[in-house]
Write a structure and sequence with these properties.
0% strand; 71 residues; MADF-dom; globular; mainly alpha; 4 helices; (apollo) hypothetical protein
Length: 71
């Protein structure tokens, strides 16, 4: 996992995930909306890594390994 995510507040991260039903609720119609889900992951990455948008595509995808968000 990328270093930037090693030092995050786990509880805050979990709460942020809970705020985004499209990420965690596989039975939700929102979960099948790839654009909404990608946007939610991108917003999380930006929140926990303020320099996220300045990173290369490879670095962004390393940070969000499970769910590529770089375009």
């Amino acid at each position: 996992m990328a270093k930037v995510l090693e030092n995050i507040d786990d509880e805050l991260f979990i709460n942020e995930i809970k705020e985004n039903e499209c990420i965690w609720n596989y039975s939700s119609e929102l979960n099948s909306d790839k654009i909404k889900k990608d946007g939610a992951w991108r917003a999380l990455c930006e929140k926990f890594d303020p320099d996220f948008n300045e990173k290369s595509v490879k670095e962004k995808n390393d940070i969000a390994k499970v769910h590529p968000v770089a375009k």
